[in-house]
Queue: 2 jobs
Job 1
Amino acid sequence: MQPVLQTSELSVTQGGREILKGINWQVFPGDFTALIGANGAGKSTLVKAALGLLPLSRGEVRLFGQLLHRFKKWDQIGYLAQNSEAINFGFPATVTEVVSSQLCAATGLFRGPNADQRRAVSAVLAQVGLSTKARSLLGNLSGGERQRVLIARMLVTSPQLLILDEPTTGLDEDNSRVLLELLLKLNQEQNAAVVIITHHLADVAGLVNQVYSLSGGKLKLPPVESEGASFSSSEVM
Ligand SMILES: Nc1ncnc2c1ncn2[C@@H]1O[C@H](COP(=O)(O)OP(=O)(O)OP(=O)(O)O)[C@@H](O)[C@H]1O
């Protein structure tokens, strides 16, 4: 089976310091992976580098088998960055417009969504519990609702690889559970690969089938046995 994400000897240097040191990592269709590690370990750096958002100092990345610089099918990948609060939510757009904007690559920026796309937007807003807010301006939403708009935007293209950087930050207990259940459903029913960066392993322990730990610039499978997750003690080579 071809990995949807593969890094080979990936190294990243930031501010003169080597943050990631020769990381070999593979994510396969159907994987549900947690990426854990202390603050500053380099988790966000790893996923950003894997998505071409940061330069590599060494190594290579393949997405769906393609070298990163040749990869074009970005609608196959959904990425939710950390700290979505940094996004300009004052922009005068409605929830529907923001989610629809993700479909622009298919329709062109100045053409409205077609009937299928409008249905997809409605469906994804229902999935994240925002149907009643479809016409609301972003600026009038709570922090948790904004986070759910970004999640809906990420999901509307039905990506096969979902990467979420601490996605439950700002969500209450109910909405965190709804999001994790939705990710599990996409994983199980559509075989989507999910990578979730989290500091709350207990919240995802029953969902994930592997846990990688980042420490000292290296990626490891931690030596833990847990129900619902298979871990081994080896370092990922
Ligand atoms: N632009 C930058 N210039 C210099 N150093 C940076 C830059 N961006 C990140 N770093 C450093 O890289 C290291 C890894 O940061 P990163 O955000 O990837 O960690 P993280 O594991 O995601 O942390 P957290 O759990 O706190 O989100 C940190 O020491 C950070 O200070």
Job 2
Amino acid sequence: MTNLNISADPKGSPIRLAAPLLSVNGLTKRYRHGDPLAVEDVSFSLGNGEILALLGPSGCGKTTTLRMIAGFETPDGGEILLHGKRVTHLPPQQRRIGIVFQDYALFPHMSLGENVAFAMRHIAKAKRPAKAREWLDLVGLADLSTRMPDELSGGQQQRVALARTLAAEPELVLLDEPFSNLDAALRESTRKEVRRLFKAAGTSVILVTHDQAEALSFADQVGVMHSGQLLQMDRPERIYQTPATAFVAEFLGHTNLLEGMADGEIAQTALGPVAIDHRQQGPVRLSLRPEHLSLSAAPDDHGATIVEREFRGHDCYYLLEHHGQRFCAITPSHILWKIGEQVCLEPQRTATVLRD
Ligand SMILES: Nc1ncnc2c1ncn2[C@@H]1O[C@H](COP(=O)(O)OP(=O)(O)OP(=O)(O)O)[C@@H](O)[C@H]1O
């Protein structure tokens, strides 16, 4: 991976663009001799003002990656560059990185205003209270600046923690599951608000989460990790629509994994001929999202059988059986099929050819 974004002008000569804010090259970490690698050869870069979500199951190496970027863990291999400068072995306080961990501990003996002002050591002391009010205003809590942390709800404490992080004016903010202590409704609204705040401040962010909906809605780029490796990184819509592997496809939502025999742009599968997104010959493994399958009345008894139905309000999730294989489909809920009914199951979009 290069450390500089290089593009070409129309005449073909390379133009050197600014280094990305953060580059991580071949980052590797093993905690103890004999343990598997916690992080294995992870490389990516992050532009100014960009939001990246690192997504993956528990133990896949997300937090370790974040802690190495913050400077709390030393990598065994690879390097970390900020603005093209190597910071791999610099202590955390020399990296201008803000961190919000899951428990976002505020100082209990300080008011909200004091908590935020504490982060502003780069500003003259006399100016800090007014500036702290401005940051609290940004998160909608200026009126509560004299309150103590234990007089706030979990969601309010979360927002103060964010105001405190932003008040230090870091170039990069690392968020480790910062919304996990909030209930579902508050989590969604806080997430939207926090994204808006970061975008307004132009701050770059890396969010660690195991919640795929959170990653897809919060980030500009999503990286999926598994067993210490970064399997794929791409824009949310692209990683959802064109997953590289079966693991990525399944981690980002429901999918149908189909074995097929490809001949050019079509593969023969248990669902009949299916259009595929890459020209290919021979055996292929495909991913087809459930919302890309349509259900219609079967002319005879040869269709798929509905074995499960989950009504979800605006759509309906079906589990179907066809020639001994199971498929899932999601369709708008204005037409509902009954369990036991026979239906025609037809792919409406191209299926994605998986790498493995
Ligand atoms: N301090 C440590 N000492 C030894 N092993 C560790 C330590 N911290 C993490 N690990 C191991 O490293 C691997 C990666 O852990 P890590 O915390 O980075 O994963 P994660 O994806 O953030 O998981 P979670 O979502 O559960 O926080 C795991 O196998 C974990 O057990």
